[in-house]
Amino acid sequence: MTLASKILVVLKMVLLALLISVDKQNSYFIYLNNPETVLSKGILHQKTFIKDSHVRYFFHYKNGTDKNIKFNIQSKKPVKSLKKSISTDPMPEFAGANAVKNFLSAKESNSQLNLVSSLEPDATISGILEGDFSKGDTITYFFENKSVVTNSYDIYQNNYNYEFNLNISLNQKTNYKLGSGIANTVKGQYGSTVNLNITPNQTGILKMSFNPRGGHGLLVFSNRGRIFITKLLPAFKKYDAIMLSVEKGKKETFTFIPIGGLNYPINLEFSLQSYFLDADIA
């Protein structure tokens, strides 16, 4: 057995132990991105639920073959309170961004899964799927062939909803590194929900800027019931994302889901300025 094979065996044993631990919970997160580039047809993930479970899936795959291929997600039973979003694009960043954007506005339904997406060579499919799975149900993710199992593995995560509270005063700045610093999560926190609650200590103008640190970056986020998406912009520069009129003591919530196709972290900067300064508050 080669060293690489031995490492893969050990990794799968660790992940299996984690799976057994997390699988006993009623709610958890499953991350599907290994391998990120799929070179052959077959099953990427298959799971039979041993109890009623609320699960969020994040998946992000590139078609590494030289042919158009069909990506499938199937369940045997209806999934309750189902929210889903799937996007394909030649550019991984846009597949990820559109998947998150659509998931933030997705409506719940009760339906059996039989999803099929056509994926061209070198294109990427990215998505989020969340719902209540019944005991005994089986879900299968596969590229075209359901009779072959590919060499892949899953990552299980206990939590996927995080909330952070930040206060800000006039003429001050506060920062948060999106995709970094949350323990017991996949690197980058891809597919997890991060709510930033910003409470201004004075009434004024709140500005959020961002600075990609791991390569070209963009933001997808919601605030006040609206969903925003920025342009894809170069790393190591600061860009303004949104400016809001805010009231003293009134919380502003910004909701993010780190997207597939980007390298994190992205530094977020919040600043608060008085109404009575010049119009240019940059």
- Radius of gyration (CA) equals 20 Å
Q: Describe the largest sheet.
A: 9 strands, mixed
Say how many strands there are. 18
Total helical elements: 2
**Residue-averaged pLDDT, rounded?**
91
What's the helix and strand layout?
Layout: H1 3-22, E1 27-32, E2 37-38, E3 42-48, E4 53-63, E5 69-89, H2 92-104, E6 109-119, E7 124-133, E8 138-143, E9 155-157, E10 161-168, E11 173-178, E12 193-200, E13 204-212, E14 220-223, E15 226-229, E16 239-246, E17 252-256, E18 266-273
Parallel strand pairs: 1-4, 2-4, 10-12
Antiparallel strand pairs: 1-9, 3-8, 4-7, 5-6, 5-7, 5-8, 11-18, 12-17, 13-16, 13-18, 14-15, 14-17
Question: Short description, anyone?
Answer:
The chain contains two helices and 18 strands.
Notes on the protein architecture:
It contains two helices and 18 strands. It is mainly beta. The protein has two domains: about 25-155, Jelly Rolls (Sandwich), CATH 2.60.120; about 160-275, Jelly Rolls. The strands form three sheets. Strands 1, 2, 3, 4, 5, 6, 7, 8 and 9 form a nine-stranded mixed sheet that branches. Strands 10-12-17-14-15 form a five-stranded mixed sheet, with helices on one face. A four-stranded antiparallel sheet has the order 11-18-13-16, with no helix packed on it. The longest helix is centred in the N-terminal third of the chain and has 20 residues, at about 5-20. The N and C termini lie far apart (about 60 Å). Mean pLDDT is about 90; it is low at about 1-20 and about 280.
